[in-house]
Amino acid sequence: MSEPSTTGTSQRTSRWLMALPLLAFAALAAIFWFRLGSGDPSRIPSALIGHPAPQTALPALAGLANNGAQVPGLDPSVFKGKVSLVNVWASWCVPCHDEAPLLTELGRDSRLQIVGINYKDAPDNARRFLGRYGNPFGIVGVDANGRASIEWGVYGVPETFIVGREGTIVYKMVGPVTPDNINTVLRAEIDKALKAGS
Asked: What are 133-178's pLDDT values in tens digits?
């Protein structure tokens, strides 16, 4: 009488062990796909929400004037006492061109100040960009090496933040301001921040 073969059993076990990492990877990929793919990328949470705006001063964009006066750079003290919309932008950023007219529209709202952080851009190109679309910013800080944007937790340009009257970041939008989200999301968050500080 022959003994039962253990070779077949060990081969099946070996195949399962070899397939286990692949199955684990596929399961993780599916989870990430459904969590990220079904969500709105502009709603990526920020670890800075509820924390003070970074205290990084940035120099002014040289040669950028408003009514004959140099537009100031970013001094972190400007966030105290006012609701601010902070937009991180660059002339080389394609979605920044799309959102520029919408930011100009927001710039007409006298209840808040609009602050621009010009990210890794050539000054001439940045000035031309603002000349083309209009300058919605009362303040433009130049982040030539990108360090300040890292402190703001920027994933990529454009990104927009709302800073409350206490100088605390209350909202972050990843990606461009669009005709779809300007009223349904951004203006609603601005109104919340204005009401919170009144």
From this structure: 999 999 999 999 999 999 999 999 999 999 999 999 999 999 999 9
Q: Which CA distances in Å does 33 have to 29, 63, 175?
A: 6, 46, 19
CA distances for 52 relative to 79, 136, 178, 198, angstroms: 9, 24, 27, 19
Q: Cβ atoms within 10 A of the Cβ of 83, count? A: 23
- The domain locations on the chain are 1-39, 42-196
153 DSSP β-pair partners: none
Separation CA 102–CA 90 (nearest Å): 15
Instruction: Find out whether 164 and 86 touch, Cβ atoms under 8 Å.
Output: no
In this structure, CATH architecture of domain 42-196: 3-Layer(aba) Sandwich (3.40)
pLDDT beneath 50, residues of the chain: 33-42
| DSSP bridge partners of 143 | 119
